Amino acid sequence: MTKKKNKTKKLKNNLIKLKDNLFNFIKYNRLFLSYVILSFISCFLLRALTIGNPWDIKANVFDITVIMLFGSLAYFIKPKKQYILFISLLCFYTILNIVNSVYYAFFNSFASFSLLASMGQTAEVTDAVFEKLKVINFVYLIMPIIFIFINKYLKKKNYQYPSTPSLSHMFALDYQLDYILNVEGLENRFKRHIEMADIVRNWGRKYFELFPEEGYLSNTLTTIKNTRGISVADLNKELAKRGFQISNGYGDLKEKTFRIAHMADITVDEVKELLDNINDILGLQ
What we know:
Structural class: mainly alpha
C-alpha cells in the first residue's frame, strides 16, 4: 500500500514538474512559438486553399519539423538578433507560399525550380493571369504582419521576473559605481590601490617574505609567506579585538601564508593602522 502511495505521489510530482517546465518554456520562448505557429498556419492554409487536404498528417509533421529546425538556429545567435532570423524565415515561407498558390491556380501543381521557368509563358497572357489571381492568393502576407505586431507587443510588455530581484544590491551597485567614476575618479582609485599595495609589500618584505614572485604581485591583495612561524589564527583573534582582520592562507597554505587586502574603499591610513596593530601584537617594533 505504501509503495502504491509513493508511486502515485511520484507520478503527481512529475506531472507538476512537467507542467511547470512547459509553462516556463512557453513563457520564455514566446517569439519562437509565435514564429512556429504562424509559419505552420501559412503552410496549412496553402494546402487548404490548393489541394484541399490540410489535415494530411505526414505533410503537417514535415512542415513543423522543417519550421522548427530552421527556427532553432535562433538559439545559436544573440537574443536581440533572433527576431531578424524569425521574420526573415517567415517572409521566405510567405513568398514561397504565394508563388505556389499562384502557380497552382494555373497548373494544378506546386512550383519547382524547373517548372518555374514555364511561368515566363504567362507574360504573353497578362490579362488572363490577373483574371485568375484572387486576394486569397496573398492571404499569407498576414503572417509576417502579425509577427511584427507580436514582437512589438512582447518588447513593450513588462515581464514578471522568474525570481525576486535583489533591489538592494542594484541600488548599492548604482551608488558605488557613481562614487567610483564621479566622486573619487577611476584613475585616483587605481592610484590609491597601488599606494596601499606598496605599503603592504614593503612591510611584508621587511618582516616576512612575499609569497608570489615579484612579476606577479597584485594591486588589490598581497599574500605573505609566514617565515616567522606565527599563529595566524591567534593573530586574527587579537586583531578582531581591535576591529581588524586579515585572511589566513588557502588549503595547504593555511598558517604557511596570510593575506592582506588593499582594495575597494580601504584607505591608506586604515592600511597603516592595521600594520601598526600587527606590529604591536607581534612585537615587531
